[in-house]
Amino acid sequence: MTNATTPRHDTKNPLTCCPRCYKAELLGRAMRSPIFRYDKVDADERPLSYAVYHGAQHVATLSRRGASGPTAYEVRVVAPGGEQELVAGSLRDARALAEETYTVEL
């Protein structure tokens, strides 16, 4: 009877362990990466605004209007068919609206 040894996997450094662990780690990292990215736009004369990116592509701009209320944020979604202007009451709602509108347009 032969003594078969099973390989021990290095779970602390999966990228250097073996090809199987390397592939699994890269796939796991890809699943955890954010789909949409938000960058704050610095502008002196304009109100607070954020640029929304899907990967490297700019897909929307979220801008704060002067007054608070049900239309506090303006959402401009850049779609293949043209640009859409929408409004939202909070920054969270504006982000959700931009993501939904962009994914529906595709």
Give the topology string: H per helix, E per strand. Answer: HEEEEEH
Distance between the termini: 60 Å
Percent in strands: 25-35%
Helical content (DSSP H or I, runs of 4+): 25-40%
In what order do the strands lie side by side in the largest sheet? 1-2-3-4-5
- Please work out how many helical segments DSSP would assign: 2
Give average pLDDT, whole number.
Answer: 81
Output the radius of gyration. Answer: 22 Å
Flag low-confidence runs.
none
Tell the overall outline.
elongated
What is the makeup of the main sheet? 5 strands, antiparallel
Structural class: alpha+beta
Total beta strand runs: 5
What does this structure look like?
With 106 residues, this protein is α+β, with helices and mostly antiparallel strands. It has a domain of 71 residues. The chain contains two helices and five strands; from the N terminus they run H-E-E-E-E-E-H. It has a five-stranded antiparallel beta sheet, with helices on one face. Strand 2 and strand 3 form a beta hairpin.
